[in-house]
Every structure is written in structure tokens, then in C-alpha cells.
Amino acid sequence: MGAEMHYVRPGDTVTLNPEREIAVPTGIKPGAENQRLAA
């Protein structure tokens, strides 16, 4: 689970659900999905 926070950018808002709370609003959802799948 901790690996998910690795792709979280410093400027993004850290939440309990980085892949949803961060990836969606910032528009980096595609990138986040790829990172999660690759990891």
C-alpha cells in the first residue's frame, strides 16, 4: 500500500486514497493507473 504514495507529487494533496483523491482532480489519473499497474 505504501508504494502507492511513491508516485504522489509534492504539489498534490495527500489523502487516505491517493489514487482517487489525487489522481482524479489533478488529471493524472492515467499516469497514476500506469504506475499502480507497473508496481
From TrEMBL:
- The organism's place on the tree of life at top rank: Bacteria
Stated name of the protein: Uncharacterized protein
